Amino acid sequence: MYFNCGFLSGASIPHKHMQLIPYSSLYGSLLPVENAALTIEGKEKMFHLPHFKQIKHVFYDLKQVGFDCLLTDLLPEEKEEYFEHQASLVETCYTQCLNYLGYKYSHEKSNHQDYNLILTRNFLLLIFRSRESVKHPENSKADISMNSLGFVGTMAVKNEESLEYIKQLTPIGVLERLSMTAE
Fold it and tell me: Least packed by Cβ within 10 Å: which of 29, 60, 145, 172?
């Protein structure tokens, strides 16, 4: 599941909504960012991905707080209470991540911090954004626009010029240009 909060986050639809990509579409694989996060040994429940050292972000290990969206052996009368508890866990982790990164909510557009939220089976990932796209200095056809999915390892391009620009900057380099800088 992902949420693009604000137009700098790659949100192209002007109303709040979350989007879900079923794991079955990944053919049994994990997202690249999940694989990277799972390799970190001795991680706290909130941690940073070394690959994103220049990016203002935070991961939350949902398994450490008992999140399990795949529990299937519940009786029908137990499911509603269980899933309400799971939703409450995610909400608490989400709020902790926002607070950790110093998020300040504001109704004023000039004071609003845009971000990307990604929720997987294992992690919640929050990334602060500084811009919606990376502009090519000479060729606007090569501009790179990206939403949350770029941070999980899926980058879509519209043309060869954009693909070549991503190769030139490197995928991590593109993500660093789209994000707030880690302090």
Answer: 29
Within the chain, residue ranges assigned H as helices are 32-38, 76-100, 149-152, 160-169, 171-178
3-state secondary structure (DSSP) of residue 175: helix
Q: At what angle do helices 171-178 and 160-169 cross, to 10 degrees?
A: 90
Token pair recorded at residue 59: 């991961």
Q: Judge residue 60's burial from the number of C-beta atoms within 10 Å of its C-beta, 0-12 exposed, 13-18 middle, 19 or more buried.
A: buried
CA distance linking residue 75 with residue 50, whole number of Å: 41
Structure-token pair, residue 56:
């203002």
Q: What is the pLDDT of residues 88-105, one digit of tens each?
A: 999 999 999 999 999 876
Burial environment of residue 62 by CB neighbours within 10 A (0 to 12, 13 to 18, 19 or more): buried
Span 94-146, pLDDT tens digits: 999 999 999 876 666 666 789 999 998 889 999 999 999 999 999 999 999 99
- Name the residue ranges covered by the structural domains of the chain: 2-129
Residue tagged 């949100």 (tokens): 11
Q: How far, in Å, CA of 144 to CA of 165, rounded?
A: 8
User: Which tokens sit at 107?
Assistant: 């109704």
Q: How far is CA 42 from CA 38, 39, 45, 141, in A?
A: 10, 10, 10, 44
